[in-house]
Design brief:
- The protein is α/β, with parallel strands linked by helices.
- The chain has 2 domains: about 150 residues, Rossmann fold; about 290 residues, no CATH class.
- It contains 17 helices and 13 strands.
- A hairpin with a 3-residue loop joins strand 12 and strand 13.
- It is globular.
- It starts with 6 loop residues before the first helix and ends in a 16-residue tail after the last strand.
């Protein structure tokens, strides 16, 4: 089964722009980076050179690079050893615009990663580098090539990509946000959302569901993916003394999502308490911080910051965690034993978080570096998400409800002038508009929302 991915269009735009920079494609393990890059290379270039630093081809290229770089004191230094290495690796390599070089799992070799500047400045061909654990690049032997790269993040399948598998993408893209379509159209998308929130968007999991229509099989796939991630991650840590560190942190993050609703001052300390029940001496705060940073750099988790009283000038960073895949979120939340209505509400928030996260990564539509939620000290309330638009410089509140619940905090913030508009993203609705200030939208259409006064599509 071939999955159509939104990133393909971005790759075409990068090729057309021809900036001369190396493209760094980031993303979690098993989101389909290798597949889509090979497809892009085959379909858009006369010649593709593919090297995986985690496979035999990587060993072969390192051998070529070593031989091309050989030098003895007193002799002239070798000229353009990287070019010579590519010519040795592939006799048909030519440095022109009809050629693309793809270096996969580049985090496995600092020697090759440190050639990015050369690849950007001395070559005419297109170059893409990628890897699942690029967080390793914070180690001292990796020299970050500032100014010579641009990046794209590839994530698990988004909801519209998921719908494409089942032939419903056109309905998603054209359905009215505020209820003008037949009720059956909204119900159909809602049914697919109910599946998506449980299994998420990892390609192997989606293909499994498409083939068997069995959610329990998908849970097994997710469990295997997370187990492989944990095992592979451990080899990058010299200071791990608890072999189950990542499994414990996953469970602790899920518990923390359930326990806290106002944001906490020190997420690391809270996670340590949950994961280790305050057993002294087993893990240092530094080690926990290292592991959490790794999970973020590996695109497994993300965080949200808190805006006090919906004030974009009062932002408290790192105040809440979310998983970066709905299936992973559901898997670990379900494992806590929490009631399903609690889990369903948290999944709804996670879904909207991912939508805002994408807008921050891909557009200049909203302010901040991560999504924000907000507190309202006056009534000791909380707003699920707060958006400061860079399109009309208005303040938008978002209340997320998996059912048809009332949004008291959001409405009070609107009444008190802290917000200009309020979006109610609900699981049980067809959508509607009230007083040109409050907009009710089906939860599954979160990615269709834009933050400007027209309240429509781009």
């Amino acid at each position: 089964m071939e999955l159509r991915r939104n990133i393909y269009q971005k790759l075409l735009e990068w090729k057309k722009e021809d900036s001369g920079q190396v493209l760094e494609v980031k993303g979690a393990r098993q989101v389909g980076k290798t597949y889509i890059l090979k497809k892009f290379g085959r379909e858009n270039f006369r010649k593709m050179v593919y090297i995986s630093m985690a496979e035999r081809s990587g060993e072969d290229f390192l051998r070529c690079l070593s031989e091309a770089s050989e030098w003895n004191p007193g002799e002239p230094r070798p000229r353009q050893p990287v070019r010579k290495a590519l010519e040795m690796f592939d006799s048909e390599f030519t440095d022109d615009k009809e050629t693309i070089v793809i270096i996969d799992e580049i985090q496995e070799s600092s020697t090759v990663y440190n050639q990015i500047r050369t690849l950007a400045r001395e070559f005419q061909c297109y170059v893409i580098v990628t890897g699942s654990y690029l967080g390793r690049l914070i180690e001292r032997e990796f020299f970050l090539p500032a100014g010579d790269t641009e990046h794209i993040i590839m994530e698990p399948l988004t909801f519209d990509e998921f719908l494409d598998v089942f032939g419903e993408r056109e309905l998603y893209e054209t359905i009215d946000l505020y209820g003008k379509n037949p009720a059956g159209d909204y119900e159909k998308l809602k049914e697919y959302y109910e599946i998506y929130q449980k299994i998420g968007g990892y390609p192997a999991v989606v293909v499994c569901y498409a083939q068997y229509k069995d959610v329990s099989r998908c849970y097994a796939k997710i469990e295997k993916l997370m187990s492989i991630f944990a095992d592979e991650s451990k080899r990058y840590f010299e200071d791990i003394i608890d072999k189950n560190l990542f499994e414990k942190l996953f469970n602790a993050i899920a518990l923390l999502m359930i326990q806290e609703k106002q944001g906490v001052r020190d997420l690391t300390s809270e996670l340590s308490k949950i994961a280790y029940q305050e057993e002294s001496g087993r893990m240092t705060k530094k080690m926990i911080n290292h592991a959490i940073s790794w999970l973020q750099e590996s695109h497994i988790i993300g965080y949200a910051s808190k805006a006090v009283d919906c004030d974009y000038m009062q932002i408290k960073e790192n105040s809440r965690y979310y998983f970066l895949d709905m299936g992973v979120s559901h898997y670990f939340l379900r494992g806590t034993g929490a009631p399903y209505d609690v889990i369903k509400g948290l999944l709804a928030e996670n879904f909207v978080y991912l939508s805002l996260h994408r807008k921050l990564e891909n557009t200049r539509e909203i302010a901040g570096i991560v999504p924000w939620f907000a507190s309202y000290e006056k009534i000791n309330g909380e707003l699920d998400f707060y958006v400061r638009s860079l399109l009309d410089y208005k303040n938008y509140g978002i209340e997320v409800k998996s059912t048809d619940a009332v949004a008291k905090t959001g409405k009070k913030l609107l009444e008190d002038g802290k917000l200009d508009y309020l979006y109610l993203l609900k699981g049980e609705t067809k959508g509607g508009i009230a007083d040109e200030k409050i907009f009710t939208i089906p939860l599954c259409l979160a990615d269709r929302v834009t933050y400007r006064r027209t309240h429509g599509l781009d």
